[in-house]
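Check out one such.
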Amino acid sequence: MPFTRYVEVGRVVLINYGPDAGKLGTIIDIVDQNKCLIDGPAEITGVRRQVIAYKRIALTDLTVKIQANARDKTLKKAWADADTLNKWESSSWAKKLAAKKKRASLSDFDRFKVMVARKQKSEIIAKKMAELDLTLVAVDCSDDAPNVVAI
C-alpha cells in the first residue's frame, strides 16, 4: 500500500511532545522542511496557532479543506463541516490513546479488580472449551456418524 499521509495544508496532526502533547491540530502553512504552522482551532482542541517541528507531531489520516494561512473562523467551519472531531474519536488510534490514559489513571485497587476479573474470565473460557472438547470426542466415537475433527 502506498504512503498516503503527506505533510500538506489541512492535514490534521497529533502533537506528541511539549505542553500541547496529546492534542489535535491542523497544518495551516509549511514554514520549511523542518517546521510547519499549526492551529487547533483553539476553541475545539485547545491548541493555539504556533510553529512546530515535524518531529513533535504525528500525521493522521484526517484532512480538512482549507486554504493556506486560513483564519481561525474558516478553520472552525472546516472542522465542523468535515466532522473531524467525531471521526478522530471513532478511530482506533484515538481509542487506543483513551484506553492507555484510562489504564494510567487506575489505582492499585482498580488494577487488582481488573486482574481478578481476567482470572474469572479465563476460568469460564477454559471450562467451556473443555466442555466442547468432550462433546466433540463423544460425537467422534460413534461408528455411524461421520468423523468430526476437533480443531
Observations:
- The CA atoms of residues 106 and 114 lie 10 Å apart.
